[in-house]
Every structure is written in C-alpha cells, then in structure tokens.
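Review box. Two proteins, two foldings.
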Amino acid sequence: MHYEINKDSLINFLREVYIEIDDQESITFISKNCSNLLGHTQVELVGKNIRDILSVIPEKYTTVANLKVSVITKNGTVIPVDLAGSPIVNDNNEVVGYRFSLIDISSYFKFDSHEKTINQMFERSKDIIYRSELIPTFKFTYLSPSIEEILGYSVEEHLINQMLPFQIAHPDDCDILIRKITNNIDFSKPLPVRYRHKDGYYVWLDDFCIPIYDDNSVLVALEGFSRDITDKKQLEEKLERLSYYDGLTGAYNKYYLEKEIHVLDTEKDLPVGIIFCDLDNLKLTNDVMGHEFGDRLIVNTINILKDTFTENSVIARTGGDEFIIIIKDTSLSKVKGLYNLLCSSVEQQNKYNKELKVGVSIGY
C-alpha cells in the first residue's frame, strides 16, 4: 500500500523554511512559511533558481549543518540564516537534487553585535573593569586591559597570580580588601585604596564595587570598576598643605594648630607643654629695614625653633610675629629644659649672626 505524504502539512509545524531543488538548481518545493522569512509566496518561488534568493549553495550538494549564509527577501533585505542540507538521490543512488532548511538567525547576530559593542567599550575603558568570583576561592573572571597601563601588571599576570592585588596593596589599605571579600564593608561608597605600581610608586584607585549575592544572601562575586585618582589625591594633599602651612616659613599655621588642639582636647589624654614666642619690635623693623628684612628675621626664628623642637612637637606661626610650640606627652621639667635650650639657641644665633639678630620674648 502506498501513502502520499503531504509535505506542506508536515512542515507547517516547523519554524524552518524547507526547500527542495533539482540538479539545475531550480526550486521544486518550498514550505508555505517561506513568506515569513522571504516575503515571497510558494507560487512565486517554485521554478525560480535558488541563487536568486540564497547567497551560497553547498559545493557538490554535500551534507552540511550550521552553515552560515544569507538570503535576499522580496524587498531586498539581506537576512543571515543557518542552513542544514543533504542531497536527494534516486533509486540508482544518483544525486538528482538537494533538500535543505533555513532558519533566521538575525536576532542572534544582533545579540552578538551588542555583546561585541559592550566588550569593545570595556576594552577601551580608561578605568579598570573587573569581575571576581569568591566561591570556592577568590579569582578574577574578567579584567580590562587598562589595568596594565594603570598598575604596570598585565591581565595575564593577575590571572596567573590571583593574590597579586593583596600583595601590592599599601599595608595600611589591605584591610579594605579583606573587608570587601568578607562582606564587611559599606559597598554604597567608593573605596579608596593605594596599590604599588610595578615601577615602585603608589597609585590611588577609587573602587566602585557591586556585591553579587546568591539566593541565600551569600556574597559570591564582586563586580565593579576602579578609577585612577592619583592626581586628585595629590591635589588634595597640596591644598591641605596650603591650608595648614604658613607660606613664608613652612611651619604650621593657626588653622592647623586649632585642629591639633581640638584632637588633644577631645581624643587624646596626654600631658602637654606650651611655649609662646613673640618677636620684639617686628613692626619697627619692617618700617626701618623693610618687609624683606623682616621676613628673613621671621624665617631665621623658625629655623631656630625647628632645630630646638625635634620630637613630639607642633611648631605654628599664629600671627605675623607670634609663634606657639606644643610639646606632646611631656613633663614640666622637660618643657623647662626645652625653654632654656631655646633661650640658649637664640643667644648663640645672635652671637654668630649679628646681621639677623633675633629679639624674642619667650614664655612657657
């Protein structure tokens, strides 16, 4: 008994477009769903040469799978498709045609293109972009190439030695890294950490870290980016120096002294000594000898103070001719001894440098 198979009813269940061609490459059958992919109807395509719509035909009608080709639709759009096919043979085992199916893969191509674009963004980023797994052990699964430009160590060096960040972190900042991987830190704020560059100097990085948790709220990974803020930190340090130091002498100024007094008054419990110095007749000196001479006198006085008070001391210029020295963790007898030493130093200075003779009133 012979059964006639209705190919249309069989193939209608498939999302692929099924096609048969003869040995002249003419389409002898195409499934009805061809209009979804190609925009043509069955009637329009049967009898056409397959090369009118398909970019590539497998050589010698060999069996193929997952061959990436493209089709041209009725309106001229080119669509990438995946082709699978096999030859049609007669009873004498002669190839008389070819059968194949086409499936639209343009959505996958769009995804690949999107993914490629994102990867290119990561590769071009000036910041260090990373992902690290924490379970079962710490390891990087992604690092952007910018890490070599910023820290001198390549991506490969980090992947070979996963503990490298802990080894090159500044000793004072290692605790931040430990608290990161143990989920014991505030991830909502940037985490500033210093790392030793391969050439030996330190680089400041601001780490913007996103914790990744599993369904049981266990920290399993970290994602984020680190930005080089070395220039910013150096500027901050410079501004701090400008705000806390006297421009003429390099000694601390009144603002720093007030900050230090606040710390000693509220945070530390130490005996302190205070020595006051006031240059005599500085205004008269400026009027008679000029301000440049007065400035040299002030600098000379500071140099005497710096030579005298070397440990646990804060030397501040609190006014034009006023100086205050705070000696920390001391005793009355030590302060008195430093007072006598200072008086002696001023006397010696005036003996050997009569041009810049210092007149100063001192109390403790």
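Next protein.
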Amino acid sequence: MEKRVMTDSKRRRGLMAASALLGGVLVLSGCSGGDDKGGSSAQSSKKSQAEVDEAAAKDTSKARIAITPKGGADNVSINRGTKVTVTEGKLTEVTMTSTAGDKVAGTIAADGKSWKPDAQLERSTTYKISATAADSEGREAHENGSFTTVSPDNSFIGNFTPDDGSKVGVGMPVSINFDKPITDKAAVQKGITVTSTSGQEVVGHWFSPQRLDFRPQEYWKGGSTVTMKLELDGVEGAEGIYGVQDKTVTFTVGRNQVSTVDAKSKTMTVTQDGKTVKTIPISAGAPDNPTYNGQMVISEKFKETRMNGATVGFTDDDGKGEYDIKDVPHAMRLSTSGTFIHGNYWGDDSIFGKANTSHGCVGLNDAKGANDPNQPGAWFFNNSLVGDVVIVQNSPDKTIKPDNGLNGWNMDWAQWKAGSAV
C-alpha cells in the first residue's frame, strides 16, 4: 500500500515536471518565436510606410491651384466670374471647354500666376476647366472643375443705341431697352454711367420698366465724345434676375445740324452750327393726317424702303393699305409709330412748298431709284446723320410723345430728371 502511494506520487511529480517542461517550451515558443518573428515584421512594415510617406511628401508639388467659380456652381457670370490662380508655382496649361466640346480661348498672365478667358462666355452653358501648374522644382499639380453659366431665364440684357464707334447727331440720346422688366431701377441705373468730354451733366430717365434713356439738358456739344459704361454684371434687376453685361461704348458727336420744318409755310430750314445752309420746299401731312409737332430725332436711314399704310393703321374698306410704295427713296425714321422724312417721286413737283398731301410724313422732292444726287431728298439724306434733329412746328397736330422714338427732348429738364431712379 505504501509502495503504491510512493509510485503514484512519483508518477504525479513526473507528470508535473513534464507538464511544466512542455508548458515552458510552449510559452517560450509562443513568446520568443512570436516576438522575434512578428515584432521584427511589424517594425519593418512601419519603417517602410514612413519611408514611403516621406518620399511622397518630398515628391509632392508645392503649387496650389484655385479655380473660380467652385465646382458645381450655377448662375455664374459670363464676364468676370471665371479665373484660375496659383500660389507657390506657375500655371503651365489651362484648358477650358464647353460640354459641346468647344474650346474657350484664354490667356495665362505673364507672371504665370493667373488665367482667364479671352472673351465673354455663353449663357446657360456648362464648362469644364483643367489646370496644370509646376512649382520651383518642376513638380506638377493638377486641378479640375466645372460650372454652369447664368441662364437667359435668370438674366437680363440691355439692347442699346447708338452703336460703339458710331458718329451721330447732337440729338442722339443713349437709349437702352431691357429684355425683361426691371423692378430695382435704382440698382440698374447705378450700374450705368454716361459721360461726355463736353462736361455736360447727363441724367437717366425711365420711360417704362424696360426702357431707360440718357441725355443732357441741351443737345450734345458738336465734336464731343460720349462714353457709356455698362457695369451690370451680377446686378439684380428683378428678383432672381441678374445682369450679365460688362461693356464700354463710345461714340462721337458730329456737327450741330438742326432742321426746322414749318408745316404752315411748307418749308424746311437746315442749319449747321447755327448757320442756315439750305432751305428746302416740303409737303407735310394733309389736314386729315397732319404731321406731329415737336423735336424729333432721326433714328434710322434707308436709301430705299417699302411703306405700306396697313402697317400704321391706314387701310381701306378691304383692309388693304391706303398706299403701298415699295421703293420710297431716302427715308429717315422720326418716330416708332411711322413718321418719316423721305423723298417723294410720285407727287407732282408743284406740291412741294405749296400743299401738304402726306399721311403724316414730311416729303421732299426726289427721283425714283434714289440715284439723282441733285434732288432735295438726296441732298438731305446725304447730309444727315442718325441723331440729327428735325423740328416740326405750326402743324395742326399735337406734339409727339417723348417715348415715341428717340424724342425725349419734348420733355422739359425738370420732368426728365424726375424720371431718374437715382
């Protein structure tokens, strides 16, 4: 019994020793082997990543490109809203295209720090920009963006007269017709300036929410230069409706020519710089259709044009025009409603200076075909500018309304200034 106990005891001690030895080996294997192999691998991996990061940092360009407007923007200006700039580098290439694939010409500044389009963009168009720049070590940076310009529905423009670079008469106002009604007239008018080298005060007058004219108190000084600046880009003319124009227009004023039509004596006296240069017999409106009185400005000139009474309300019982002349010579428009001063080849020579026979126009003797320079109609046409003033007096009709054509001179200065929004 005792011997068996001793044997069991020895066996247990042996098993414990073996177990401890195996445990120690396993622990040793687990710790030593795991630490040596696993620890060495992790350290190697971290070191390798650090080296990669350091190398990548050294290889990254310092150039920072900024594209304006921000990607995804809409209702962007078609004028000054687009540019690319760079810091700590210089632009090497900028490409701008529309979604249709049309390239937009642009210029990188001489210092390489910026780029902008060369011309106005199109409305309601999506553009993409791709830019590349390099830092002082030649390392490249890239940036891309896209945006959409303002749509016609969300913008307004002003169609104006006279044209840039034109030469006009002393009565020519600056007249702007907007394609949408303007509710914030003050904001829009503040975005437009009209100045003259003559030093004359120039004031704007709103005839309607869509028409704004500018003029001085008296006619422009002959020989002066007038400049209009449209700085309407981004100006909110009505709720959600923005201007897109950024433009400077310059025109010159010719000699001071004013022609006075006396409907009673049936003559027209032409003066230049205050001196009478010609007196011409005329035929004004007949008693049933007299010519408007007042100061009228020549707004258009046509060597020949068609005049159909139906277009201005003169019709017969069948609804046809009371007259339809397809080759009226030397016609110059005086009103929107259809008043002209023009050559007349169909009337007898005896009516000029003797009888008023027209439907409201002022007629001068002329030849069919508009090719005889010796005719009064030809002389007046050749010696007139758009913007010259024709004054009609002593007619039984009323004075023409200031907004019927470019005829704001029929409003006194106080009334004119009262129509300004600023």
